[in-house]
Amino acid sequence: MSVARPEPERFELRGGSGQALRGESIGAGRDIVLCHGLSATRRYVVHGSLVLPRRGYRVTTWDARGHGESDPGPDGYGYELQTTDLEEIVDRVERDADSRGGLVLGGHSMGCHTATAWALRNPARISALILIGPVFTGQDADPDLDRWDARADALEQHGPEAFAEEVAGNMPEGKARDTVYRLARDRARLHRNPRAVAQALREVPRSRPFEGLAQLARIEAPVLVVGSRDEIDPGHPLAAARSYAETIPGAELVVEDEGKPPLAWQGGMLSREIQGFLERIGIRGEPADPGR
Predict the structure, then answer these.
(1) β-pairing verdict for 30-35 and 103-108
(2) What is the pLDDT of residue 95?
(3) 5/258 Cα distance (integer angstroms)
(4) Distance in angstroms (rounded) separating the CA atoms of residues 61 and 34
(5) What is d(CA 277, CA 269) in angstroms, rounded to the nearest whole number?
């Protein structure tokens, strides 16, 4: 008998500002909280894969301030706001009666940095970290600020298609460029407040999630770092992922095979890598009863 398709439980959180964060939890069992990247939405961490919910994990994702269905931020979009919002999400997860043990926390790109910053402040509240596509390595400024500003201008002034053209940039014509363009265009179309996303594109790369790589040596929880090869995804340098894995004690690093699309783009494969890692460190899901 096949297992019934898990359905998401949507939620809305309103902090002191009254502006809403909107997200969803899907599945039951051990909690996994995943933060998405800059200009993306909650759909773009595991890309709709149901592998983890079907393996007995409850996955919580949400749209960052100004992104997707969430309201704009009350005062800017730097990492201080990102970590404050993550605190609200974690509080909700921990209050839920289905939460068992320390949660698994992770994210992609901006979400990776947000998860790392929060984990450094709250080491006792996590049981594992999943760090996908890290970029920040401690420099005072992102080396690609002009690129981020150009993307912001394209989205704000000309819409999702122009934004996608800017993201695809100078990539040679072919399947990889088509995929990058399509992903960028489709996620840009999901934003209720594109001006807010444009503001975030300008501000987040100028914000520091934590002081520098040396801080990562304090992390004691098991960590999986997911890197991407530079030929297809140069915006998330493989060198940065390797630096995280080398600095965090005992961290594992996984990267797609040569010539293959990045793991971060393949929700099913990424989810299986996460599941395998969690099982290796003893965090097993609680499979649903197929008879229900």
Answers:
(1) parallel
(2) 86
(3) 34
(4) 5
(5) 12
> Phi, psi (5° rounding) for residue 32?
-125, 120
Vertex 128: Cα angle to 127 and 130 (nearest 5): 155
Q: Within 13 Å of residue 78, how many CA atoms lie on the same side as its CB?
A: 8
- Is the alpha carbon torsion for 136, 263, 120, 66 positive or negative? positive
Coil, strand or helix at 196: helix
Determine the angle formed by the axes of helices 194-203 and 145-158, rounding to 10 degrees. Answer: 170
106, two tokens? 């992770």
Its sign, for the CA torsion 225, 249, 110, 165, is negative
Residues of the chain with pLDDT below 50 are 1, 99, 289-292
Burial class (CB in 10 A: 0-12, 13-18, 19+), 47: middle
Torsion of CA 214, 120, 208, 47, to 10 degrees: 110
Give strand ranges (E) for 20-76: 20-26, 30-35, 57-62
Which residue in 271, 30, 231 sits closest to 132, CA to CA? Answer: 271
pLDDT digit string, tens, across residues 85-101: 999 999 999 987 554 56
